[in-house]
């Protein structure tokens, strides 16, 4: 059996990740979350444990119960939520991550095994100073624009660096067996579009909100301008991406942090697609939230994912049209009984 820990399993990514991991009967999936899981996720996971990642004792008791092969550390307060409660975001996203990284490192050293530690970072890790520069930058590489403006973005950069530290330099003066340090692997996700769940607390949320509102025959007042442009991808591609990264041969990985992306539409193009599939409603742009707009404007309009393609063969299965027509449409219709 492969014993897998998921933190933040009750979130959007957790929902699809549990569903995909449960298809392999050799996986024992320990889903953890501060709050209850959706009933489908609770049924599909092997075990649910309530865990508060900011509480060291809570984390220690989960690691005392299981020896993990792979960890997907998803728990996080997102970019908009993080600006409402920056102290909470700092606590959950940094102290919480430290607790999980430390527990995984200690367990690996104790059981003499390098535990795979998969961390989804985000386009929020980038910070581009203005729209002119954003346009000029085009597809950004992992090495550019590493000064985000949000608390969430800063904690993503911090956790990326901390993961690298724990996997390479932890206790660098000691003679511990470095082969048993964690095997840290990270992707930077773009905005994600899921037919099964609705996001909350993020700033790329407008993408999903446009589609789900149109499907529910509701008009939608966009909080970003029509020309806003950031990368997105289908949730299933994002989840298959982190599963694929977790299975990649370590020798083929030339870096620890990889961009992945699907397509890069303007907000108006998402709106057009939503209306094509679910006609009859309006999307308006006269109630822009300048703060959330500023966050989106600081994120790149596209990502260079060539290292992920080259090193571990990542390729999104769904392009823009296919995401709407083949992935979102059938499942959203089923969800809302259309
Ligand atoms: C957010 O909007 O905060 C997230 C993200 C892009 O990481 N969806």
TrEMBL record:
The molecular function GO annotations come to: L-threonine 3-dehydrogenase activity
List, in alphabetical order, the GO biological process terms annotated in this UniProt record.
L-threonine catabolic process
The record's InterPro entries line, in alphabetical order, gives:
Epimerase_deHydtase, NAD(P)-bd_dom_sf, NAD(P)_epim/dehydratase
Q: What sequence ranges are listed for the domain NAD-dependent epimerase/dehydratase?
A: 4-260
Q: List the SUPFAM superfamilies.
A: NAD(P)-binding Rossmann-fold domains
Organism's domain of life? Bacteria
Q: Fetch the Pfam families from UniProt.
A: Epimerase (PF01370)
Name-wise, this protein is NAD-dependent epimerase/dehydratase domain-containing protein
Give the organism the record lists: Candidatus Woesebacteria bacterium RIFOXYD1_FULL_43_18
């Amino acid at each position: 059996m492969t014993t897998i820990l998921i933190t933040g399993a009750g979130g959007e990514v957790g929902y699809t990740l549990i569903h995909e991991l449960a298809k392999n009967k050799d996986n024992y999936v320990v889903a953890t979350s501060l709050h209850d899981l959706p009933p489908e996720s609770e049924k599909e996971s092997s075990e649910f444990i309530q865990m508060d990642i900011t509480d060291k004792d809570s984390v220690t008791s989960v690691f005392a119960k299981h020896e993990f092969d792979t960890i997907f550390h998803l728990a996080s307060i997102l970019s908009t939520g993080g600006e409402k409660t920056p102290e909470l975001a700092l606590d959950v996203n940094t102290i919480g991550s430290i607790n999980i990284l430390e527990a995984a490192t200690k367990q690996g050293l104790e059981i003499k095994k390098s535990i795979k530690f998969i961390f989804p970072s985000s386009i929020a890790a980038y910070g581009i100073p203005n729209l002119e520069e954003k346009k000029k930058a085009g597809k950004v590489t992992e090495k550019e624009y590493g000064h985000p403006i949000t608390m969430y973005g800063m904690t993503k950069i911090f956790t990326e660096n901390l993961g690298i530290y724990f996997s390479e330099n932890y206790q660098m003066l000691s003679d511990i067996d470095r082969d048993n340090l964690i095997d840290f692997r990270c992707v930077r996700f773009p905005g994600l579009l899921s037919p099964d769940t609705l996001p909350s607390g993020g700033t790329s949320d407008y993408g999903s909100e446009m589609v789900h509102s149109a499907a529910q025959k509701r008009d939608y007042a966009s909080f970003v301008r029509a020309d806003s442009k950031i990368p997105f991808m289908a949730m299933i591609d994002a989840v298959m991406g982190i599963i694929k990264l977790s299975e990649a041969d370590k020798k083929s990985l030339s870096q620890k942090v990889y961009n992945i992306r699907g397509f890069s539409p303007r907000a108006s193009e998402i709106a057009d697609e939503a209306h094509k599939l679910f006609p009859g409603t309006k999307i308006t742009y006269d109630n822009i939230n300048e703060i959330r707009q500023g966050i989106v404007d600081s994120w790149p309009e596209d990502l260079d994912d060539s290292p992920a393609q080259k090193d571990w063969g990542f390729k999104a299965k769904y392009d823009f049209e296919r995401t709407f027509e083949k992935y979102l449409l059938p499942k959203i219709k089923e969800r809302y009984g259309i």
